[in-house]
Design a protein that fits this description.
The protein has 4 helices and 3 strands. It is mainly α and 96 residues long. The protein is elongated and about 60 Å long. The termini are far apart. This is DNA-binding protein.
Length: 96
């Protein structure tokens, strides 16, 4: 089957090009970081990494650890299991 592709040209003012480039760059960067997280490169995260993974501040992470998010302590290192994050957050879901 022969498919034809249509091309549409949209003129963009020169002053908008940088803004569009930055917007697309930010979207692509966010998607890349999310895909990296979804692949599960690392199962155990530091507190800083866990806060970034969830998309919350470090102080908010400290609060949810106090609420019951399990923390793994090995010597002086604190780690959080991604699976524990998912379980903890699943328990926080609300429906209306």
């Amino acid at each position: 089957m022969n498919e034809q592709q249509a091309t549409i040209s949209l003129p963009i003012p020169e002053e908008w090009k940088h803004q569009y480039f930055q917007m697309f760059y930010d979207i692509a960067s966010t998607a890349y970081e999310q895909a990296k997280n979804d692949v599960g490169e690392k199962r155990f995260l530091t507190k800083k990494e866990a806060a970034s993974y969830i998309g919350i501040s470090y102080n908010t992470l400290q609060s949810i650890i106090e609420e019951g998010l399990p923390l793994i302590q090995i010597n002086s290192k604190n780690l959080i299991d991604r699976e524990d994050i998912h379980k903890f957050l699943a328990g926080k879901k609300i429906t209306y």
